[in-house]
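Structure ticket #2291
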Amino acid sequence: MAFWQDPRRTAEEIRHFSPRDARAFLKFATLLDAAMDIGLPLLLGHPTRPAARAVSAAVTQIAKHRRELAPLTRFFVSGHQEIIEEWFDHPLLRAALAAMPPFCWMTQDGTGWALIYLGICHRIMNARFQGGSVSLPRALAACLKDHGGDVRLSARVEELIVTGGAVTGVRLSDGEELSAGYVMAACSPVVTLNRLLPEGTLSEDLERRASVIPTTNTGAGNLKVDFAFSGRIEMTKHNRWRKDGLDLREPVVSWHTYDEHLQGWNDSVARRWPAKIPFISIVPTAIDPTQAPDGQDTCWIWSGIVPSRPDVPWSEVREDIGEQVVNECAQYYDNFREAEIGRRVFLAPDLAERFNVPGGNVYHVDPFLLRFGPARPAIGLSKYETPVPGLYLTGAGTHPTGGISGIPGQQAALRLLRRSQDPARPRLARRS
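Resolution: structure written out below.
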């Protein structure tokens, strides 16, 4: 079953399995569309001081969609599982909606909002970077250099330098000090506020609040496995079944059942490794062959439904998990096992070390409903500009959330530019 940007096209896919669910999906998509009309202006702005234009646009849309407000409220007070089962019957559709996206334990109230992610897919075209995700930071680095900036690699920041209560630069692990008018930290706010910022710089209440920003409280962690192949992998049987020419190598693919998603969450929260770990898979070289030698493929899988604090340590299950993933993928992709020439399994400790994210949390901060907007990463620390002069936060741990959207960086940069040009702040203006 394929999900398309046009929900009517998706409904036609669903109709093949359940005419009743197809009709329900169109009504469901209308609700998602209303949510996007209301929420998008606020998602694209400041978390605590949205522009008057954004507020006006949201209020206008609230009035326009007043009939949808009551059913929309259920997304924010009901569970992910509850919403799915209230709306849909067919197990294939239920399974797909359980996979998009797995943010929090599906049985808990207040987790149904995750399904609004599907509305984003309907509204905004998903895209990938030619050459892989690394192409984006390369492009940003080139832009920075073109404007006279510099990029330092393998230069780990040991500490933020604080002078007179303001951040005035960074100290690297080799002792080198770099002075700066401002420091904008795109790493996890947990790292910035608790490891890099000297103790006592924040007020006592904010320092204590920063120390308990959640990164593993959903009960679920992250798993990523990268594969390299000597040839191509195909989904011949499933492509043939569809009969419409869609190459299933190209989209994100999920095949785990609805019950496997539910059990995976129950196991993860109970600190057990699921017997079947639900994951998504993608073959980047299917739409961008430049990412591998001619005639060869790469593939990666990702799961957000593994225990964040497992009873059996990560180190003891690494090889077993890698084999489990291969065994499953080989049931769907032709030549998967035979052509495999490289594998890299990232569990939470690996992600934490490689990307400097506590708990291996790719969102930097747990994606609870009440941990977004003015509470991301925490109340009093969500405005990009921190209470410490000269220090700004950005990245996945700030509004609106993680993912490769560029919105946190854009909004933080706009805030810094406005502050640096404010005549009421001459000291900061001179530091720029």
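Closing remark: The chain has three domains: 7-123, 135-215+361-431, 220-358.
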